[in-house]
Amino acid sequence: MVVGPSLALLRALQSMQTTGSVSQTATALGVTQSAISRSISKYEDGIGLKLLRRDVRPLTLTEEGMLVVAHALEIDRSIRTLNERLKTLKQGKGGIVRIGSFGPSGSTRILPDLMAQFAKCYPGISMSILEGSDEMTRKDLVKGNVDVAVLGHPIDEFDAIPIAADQLVALVQDGSALSKEPTIGPADLAGAPFVMTLAGSEVAILEWFEGAATTPDIKHRIQQTHSILALVRAGMGNAVVTSLSLPEDVQGVSVKPLRHIQMRQIYLAKKPVLANSKAVSIFWDFLSRKRTFG
What we know:
By secondary structure, the chain is of the alpha/beta class. The protein has ten helices and twelve strands. The protein has helices at about 5-20, 20-30, 35-45, 65-90, 105-120, 135-145, 185-190, 200-210, 225-235, 280-290; strands at about 50-55, 60, 95-100, 125-130, 150, 160-165, 170-175, 195, 215-220, 240, 255, 265-270. The longest helix has 28 residues, at about 65-90. It is rod-shaped, with a radius of gyration of 31 Å.
């Protein structure tokens, strides 16, 4: 089995191509001449090829030696770039934070201001949002497809910070009998077609119905809030969504408070600290200092 060359050996060969001297190379690298000679001889024995022409002065590289140096230059450049990148990340001036979001509550009402505040403090760290259903966002976080995620419920054994409080509200067709009610209870919605949101509230909605010993008649499962509003506006069903997910204009739809419902916490969650990059750690520390948002 051939053992690959060490970085020190590659740099020694690079220097010898320029200087043609073991002594000058040893001085430049801060090692002894014998250490350089031994490392080159050991690698030559391992690959069965000669890298140096030792019968001439100054020393020159063989064709095989020049091939090794050609690759060494690329390797050394990559390593130097890596070291510079790591230094930048250590200083908090680079990296990327991938954020998963379960829908409009996070993507349009919570994250933009939060990301803008963070960008002012750390302009070198990039951020990207990956939006999906609540279930998909949870899976993305577990699998490592995103670094942090906006969730309606934290995941066991994951770190979580509450970033906002939200309220579930009912959506009913404007002009309907329910639109004239001051508040809406589970029984009011149980007998009509129901549009279930996929934007992170399904668990809380079903618990609300179960608390009244009833269940919704789910006819549609929809991710986008605008699509839910269109169905309710057309009389195709009622819905329950978070107030933060609603746009300012909900023409044709009445938004009603729910009876017997508590405010819902929204969290940013991430894997335990050992799994995080420097950029993610910086973002998380920033969040920890901003626990009073929302």
